[in-house]
Design brief:
globular, binds SN-glycerol-1-phosphate, TIM Barrel, single chain, alpha/beta
Length: 245
């Protein structure tokens, strides 16, 4: 089954949790252990990526180690065309719609697309929208951040994503954000489009997960949480909450 189909199928049954692993944050073997623990906690897919420090070498090593101990789909969450892993099951072919730099909207894509095609990796298209505070990804992506109260702008990006024919919309507060994307923004996007909505950035508790899920996110991403050595209990609580919303 293609990863896109797996996602569409799974969200018919329950909301999904995806665990994001940054290859620049720990050695590949440790990433493998994190993925195994996330698998045991019933996460629904592993995403691999980070805003800075991802190289072809740490990416390949990380995906290899993840695949060694975990059967879930591994989706590459790229920051550019400089590193593309042939070992991933799919790649988010994502355009940062509110970047001021065309490189992040279509430029890296034109560089990466022929490579992705040649390697036969499944692309899953995604409109990627950065909401305040945006953190590192907002900075390196040169995003014109959507203000936290600016629901109309989010609605515009959501509908634009759907009109572009993209598979998914991702509302991103930035990794390590003190608070997730506001519920009213997620709700407004949910009411405006039919495509699945991914939400990530700053989700660190079951309460956050419940808030984001009940506002309308179909896929909830946590990353930073697994970078702390003893995350298993908290991760399990968040995943169980996501599956029950
Ligand atoms: C970042 O949305 C993801 O791209 C995850 O964010 O690291 O804050 O969980 P956190």
């Amino acid at each position: 089954m293609k990863v896109r189909e797996y996602i569409l199928d799974t969200i018919q049954k329950h909301k999904m949790h995806m665990t994001l692993i940054d290859p620049a944050k720990q050695p590949p073997e440790v990433s493998g252990q994190i993925a195994r623990a996330a698998c045991d906690a019933s996460t629904d897919a592993i995403m691999v990526g980070g805003s800075t420090g991802v190289t072809q070498e740490n990416l390949d090593g990380t995906v290899e180690e993840i695949k060694r101990g975990c059967r879930l789909p591994v989706i590459y969450f790229p920051s550019g065309a400089h590193a593309i892993s042939r070992k991933c099951d799919a790649i988010y072919f994502m355009s940062m719609l509110n970047s001021r730099n065309v490189r992040n909207i279509t430029g890296e894509h034109a560089k990466g697309a022929p490579i992705i095609k040649k390697l036969g990796i499944e692309p899953i298209s995604m409109g990627y929208v950065i909401v305040e505070p945006g953190m590192k990804v907002g900075e390196v992506g040169e995003a014109e951040l959507v203000r936290r109260g600016d629901v109309n702008t989010v609605i515009g990006y959501a509908i634009a994503t759907e009109f572009f024919g993209m598979d998914l919309l991702y509302l991103e507060a930035g990794s390590g954000a003190p608070e997730p994307v506001p519920a009213e923004m997620i709700r407004a996007a949910r009411e405006s489009v039919e495509i699945p909505i991914v939400v990530g950035g700053g989700i660190t508790s079951p309460e956050h997960a419940r808030m984001v899920g009940s506002a309308g996110a179909d896929i909830i991403v946590t990353g930073t949480l697994v970078e702390d050595g003893s995350f298993e209990g908290r991760l399990k609580e968040i995943i169980d909450t996501v599956h029950r919303v």
